[in-house]
Amino acid sequence: MLELQNIGKQFNQKIVLEDINFEIESGEIVSLLGPSGSGKTTLLHIILGLTKMDQGRIIFNGKDLSHVSMKNRGFNIVFQDYALFPHLNAYDNIVYGLKNKRGLISEKEIREYIEFLELKPHLTKKIGELSGGQKQRVALARTLVMKPKLLLLDEPLSALDGVIKESIKERIQSIAREFKLTTIIVTHDPEEALTLSDKILIIQNGGISQFGTPQQIIHQPSNDFVKEFILKQLHIKRQNIYHLFGEKYA
Question: What are phi and psi of 185, to 5 degrees?
Fold first, then answer.
């Protein structure tokens, strides 16, 4: 379980995050959803340990990680631009982080991740030869071989569209279920959050507007901002949301 208690952050005396409190159960997929500048990426970086918080506590499986370095938290992130090395082939990108981590994972396990993400035909290709979806899968594989305790994804679908986007959404869900891996995703797209996540944390001006399941967000928006943000982004009337997402959210 991941628990955030009273998280606060300021940049140049401007409040970016204030009084952030929520809990994530093991194996859940949670989306951090909000408009640009709402604080969601800063919150992701605080959880990772990339950005220091000004106040609050981060508890993971009963251990206080508030002052533990990013290196020692055991969390891993897939950045929006994938951050792959163009001069290396797909396989070398996948195992790059294992150079100084001998014994962390066996070659058999590496191959299992590769098979799971259907990357075997692409291992010798350079990054420039891969499609967007293939690059995303390589980035996911590179993260998974590091045996993360928590998987963080920064706008994982923003550069994808159509069938490829739906395929990666299914992959992310399969990873969380198959490996019981708690997953936190930053997105600005309500449709992505609603169809991908177990729970959604909606952030407005550095504070929590609502934290709940997709069903709760759709049927019981906590305030006008949640209602208007969801509807404006989807460009449809509220009654049609149920039809769009089918029986899953009925």
Answer: -125, 130
Mean pLDDT score of the chain: 89
Contact 127, 85 (CB under 8 A): yes
Written as one letter, the residue type at 157 is L
Give CA 37 to chain center in angstroms. Answer: 17
Domains and CATH numbers, the chain: 2-74+150-249 (3.40.50.300), 84-148 (no CATH)
Q: 3-class DSSP state for residue 127?
A: helix
- For residue 81, what are its two tokens? 């631009």
Asked whether residue 249 carries a pLDDT value surpassing 50, the answer given is no
DSSP state of 210: E
**Radius of gyration in angstroms for the set of CA atoms belonging to the chain, rounded to a whole number:** 18
The encoded tokens of residue 142 equal: 């590179």
Q: Which residue has the higher pLDDT, 249 or 203?
A: 203
pLDDT tens digits for 149-187?
999 999 988 877 778 888 888 889 998 998 899 999 999
Q: 59-86 burial, b if ≥16 CB within 10 A, otherwise e?
A: ebeeeebbeeebeebebbbbeeebebee
Long-range contacts of the stretch 228-237 (C-beta < 8 A, 24+): 229/34, 229/35, 229/190, 229/202, 229/204, 230/190, 230/194, 233/188, 233/189, 233/190, 233/191, 234/190, 234/191
Instruction: Please identify which residue in the block is written with the tokens 């792959």.
Output: 84
